[in-house]
Specification:
This protein has helices at 23-30, 51-54, 60-77, 95-104, 108-120, 122-135, 157-167, 200-209, 221-235, 249-256, 259-264, 282-293, and strands spanning 83-87, 148-151, 173-177, 194-197, 211-216, 244-247, 276-279. With 299 residues, it is α/β, with parallel strands linked by helices. The chain has a 7-stranded parallel sheet, sandwiched between helices. Strand 5 (211-216), helix 9 (221-235) and strand 6 (244-247) form a beta-alpha-beta unit. It is globular and about 75 Å long.
């Protein structure tokens, strides 16, 4: 056998050692193969090293599985058992920058939009504070971490979430997604827990697979999509009930959606509205989490 082969008869092995050569060792060996018309052909590449092959439409189920597995395995390795998920707009500024929007407004419409964004900027601080509280939840006796702060990885409320955990020197997760316009992960995400997705469906699944509480701040289509999917999953029994904490009832939600009217129309039950807990402060939100899970307020 050649010297590059991973196993030799002279090697000492344990009964628990693997029988087959690892894919990593074969990938290394394949990179040093002698050049010929056959070995230079795309067909000769190892399937898992052939990017063009993996990107074929026929391989979509495999890519689904990869996007499910990669974050799952890395979170397990990081001993992360449960998440505190935070949804919200990518456009609301932090309070210190809200005035800049007003100064840049050139038309009456732009001024009104800037005023509304500035009015919601106070929730940036609440998201940051809530993340600080959640991220200091004690590690359990088996070394697993709970209520690990998780955001969509972008700016605004997402940044506030990761920033709050960073304030406490704790790890946090960012679940970013490839978009037509560049969206880089915010700088407060733990690099080893900064994930990127192609499929919205798999990204949303990872938000909820470990979620034990979800805070929802004012947002647009993406936030509505995430919120109403969560409400639907809980309503239909596909997801176990958990604290769903909405910030800004009068400042935002009552202005843009009438949930009471939805119940009055008969398309949802009045009791479905009980799935939501309305909050204005981080302390209110965390108190609800402690009540639901019957844990002490450690902060």
């Amino acid at each position: 056998m050649g010297s590059g082969y991973p196993f030799r008869m002279s090697d000492k092995h344990k009964p628990s050692d693997p029988v087959f050569a690892s894919s990593k060792s074969d990938a290394t060996a394949a990179s040093h193969v002698t050049s010929s018309p056959q070995t230079e052909s795309e067909a000769y590449k190892l399937a898992f090293q052939d990017h063009e092959f993996l990107l074929r439409d026929d391989l979509r189920p495999v890519r689904f599985q990869l996007e499910l597995l990669k974050p799952e395995l890395l979170m397990n390795e990081a001993k992360i058992r449960s998440l505190f998920v935070m949804y919200g707009s990518a456009r609301v500024p932090e309070p210190a920058k809200a005035q800049e929007l007003l100064e840049k407004a050139e038309t009456e419409y732009e001024r009104k939009v800037a005023e509304r964004l500035a009015a919601k900027s106070k929730y940036y601080d609440e998201a940051r504070k809530l993340a600080r509280i959640a991220s200091t939840y004690p590690i359990d006796e088996d070394g697993w971490r709970h209520f690990v702060v998780t955001s969509g990885g972008g700016p605004s409320f997402m940044e506030a979430a990761n920033r709050g955990a960073h304030d406490e020197g704790k790890e946090s997760i960012g679940l970013n997604i490839v978009l037509p316009h560049e969206q880089l992960p915010n700088t407060f995400i733990t690099p080893e827990l900064s994930f990127q997705f192609h499929y919205f469906a798999l990204r949303k699944m990872h938000f909820l697979m470990r979620a034990r509480a979800v805070a929802v701040f004012p947002g647009g289509f993406g936030t509505f999509d995430e919120l109403f999917e969560l409400l639907t999953l809980v309503q239909t029994g596909k997801v176990r009930p958990m604290p769903i904490l909405l910030f800004g009832k009068e400042e935002f939600w009552d202005r843009v959606v009438d949930l009471d009217a939805l119940a009055l129309e008969g398309t949802i039950s009045r009791h479905d509205l009980d799935l939501i807990t309305w909050c204005e402060t981080a302390e209110e939100a965390w108190a609800k989490v402690c009540e639901v899970y019957e844990v002490d307020d450690h902060y």
